[in-house]
Design a protein that fits this description.
Layout: H1 3-10, E1 13-19, H2 24-30, E2 35-40, E3 46-49, H3 55-61, H4 69-78, E4 84-85, E5 94-95, E6 115-116, E7 120-124, E8 131-135, E9 138-142, E10 145-148, H5 154-161, E11 166-172, H6 176-182, H7 191-198, E12 202-205, E13 212-214, E14 219-232, E15 235-236, E16 242-243, E17 246-258, E18 263-265, H8 272-279, H9 282-290, E19 296-301, E20 310-315, H10 322-333, E21 339-344, H11 352-362, E22 369-375, E23 396-403
Helix pairs in contact: 4-7, 4-9, 6-7, 9-10
């Protein structure tokens, strides 16, 4: 599958007139639907935004609906499938020159430079030989170098095992069946196999290293993460606030390739697509943990919680303590989670008004709330000034779980939602 096939099926809004790339971030901000910009001034690229901008687009492409989307992804994690390796891949049709040819852009006023915001980086553990796919923002330094933001996850851990440069490859431009697994933290599972479980994946061997990349990607960048460190940032995080400037490694580009008539996928930082791509893949990991303790109807990483810090979960309550058990499981399933609300299975967790109604009518704070202090998320500005974990610079945060399910000891009919005649059919 490919980005081209996805666009043909979804029928994006098309902008035919020539656009200056520097005007695109504001255009996306005003209209965050699926948009294809056909002509970019000074570049031989088209630009697309909003590929993963809505749950409905993603769900329809994966053959499901928005309510069952998390279950579809959770099933792919639990049932990975082998991918196919092919030669003569479309992603290597044209040899590029350097980064100046790609329409990278500054998104916000204080950005440290032009950024790649939608690139998925492929790396390999030198010990286990396992491949890893993960999103990383990359700030252009010059035509052959970028500063890459490495969080304390697999890519950084792999990099620390290399005495010299670590070979990497980056692909840009694909359909949601590839992008979503690229945003998942699935432990030791090969993300390519999760991609292939969602839709059969074809990969190909890279030109300058021993890595693999999806064969139908729009753009391939091969290079090395070096030991050189430079300032990276500022850059807007998923919270819509600026992340701090910090020293990060330099990525040196060894080669660029692309399809004929390539499409560059741009991702607005802090926008709907950024939030959905980053947050929604945590729903299946939460679901898998909560399902171990009680039946789950739905999981929603809410947009109001920056699609990262808040989660609403509906369960089919079978025991009095199921709500609290579900909260503890949710925090295990998503380590950055700050606030969690658990409701009964008659509540639509994708409707924040229903969740608020459940809190208002089914919750008592002295009996149905839990708090604990743990490591917080780096994107949460409220942790500034908080105490740090001993021996580290990681700030602690107060995590809160709200059990807004009906207490077992009380009669259920008192809490039943009323429906107008015919409404519930």
């Amino acid at each position: 599958m490919s980005l081209h096939e996805f666009l043909e099926s979804q029928k994006p809004k098309i902008v035919e007139k020539e656009i200056d790339k520097n005007n695109i971030p504001l255009m996306i901000k005003k209209d965050q639907s699926l948009i294809l910009f056909k002509k970019i001034k000074g570049y031989n690229y088209q630009i697309v935004s909003g590929v993963c901008g809505t749950r409905d687009n993603i769900a329809s492409w994966l053959g499901t609906n928005r309510e069952k989307l998390s279950f579809k992804i959770a099933d792919a994690i639990q049932n990975p499938k082998n991918y196919n390796i092919i030669d003569d891949a479309p992603c290597y049709e044209v040899k590029g020159k350097d980064l100046d040819e790609i329409p990278l852009m500054k998104y916000c006023e204080k950005d440290g430079g032009e950024y790649i915001s939608s690139g998925i980086l492929i790396s390999r553990d030198p010990d286990s030989k396992r491949l890893n796919a993960s999103f990383h923002r990359m700030m252009k330094i010059d035509k052959n170098r970028m500063a890459i933001r490495l969080c304390d996850r697999d890519t950084l851990k792999f990099c620390q095992k290399y005495s010299k440069d670590m070979p990497v490859s980056i692909f840009i431009g694909h359909d949601p069946s590839v992008l979503i697994p690229g945003a998942i933290s699935a432990g030791d599972i090969d993300e390519f196999k999760i991609m292939s479980s969602l839709r059969q994946l074809e990969v190909t061997k890279c030109k300058t290293n021993d890595l693999l990349v999806p064969a139908h990607s729009e753009i391939i960048i091969e290079g090395r993460i070096t030991k050189e460190m430079v300032d990276e940032g500022p850059f807007v995080d998923i919270s819509g606030t600026y992340d701090v400037v910090r020293k990060q490694p330099v990525l040196v580009v060894d080669g660029i390739w692309h399809k004929k008539n390539p499409i560059y996928h741009t991702l607005l930082p802090g926008g709907n697509e950024h939030r959905l791509l980053m947050g929604m893949p945590r729903e299946p990991t939460i679901y898998n943990e909560v399902a171990k303790v009680c039946p789950v109807r739905a999981v929603n990483i809410s947009t109001g919680g920056c699609s990262w810090l808040h989660c609403f979960i509906s369960i089919k309550k079978q025991k009095q303590d199921d709500g609290m058990k579900a909260i503890e499981a949710a925090f295990r399933g998503h380590k950055s989670l700050k606030h969690c609300v658990v409701v009964d299975d008659d509540i639509d967790v994708f409707n924040p008004e229903e969740v608020e109604w459940a809190i208002a009518t089914r919750f008592q704070a002295d009996k149905q709330i839990t708090t604990k202090k743990e490591e917080g998320s780096s994107i949460d500005p409220s942790t500034v000034g908080q105490e740090t974990m001993p021996g580290t610079d990681r700030r602690l945060t107060c995590k809160v779980g709200i059990d807004a399910t009906i207490p077992f000891a009380l009669k259920k009919d008192k809490f039943e939602k009323a429906f107008i005649v015919g409404e519930n059919k």
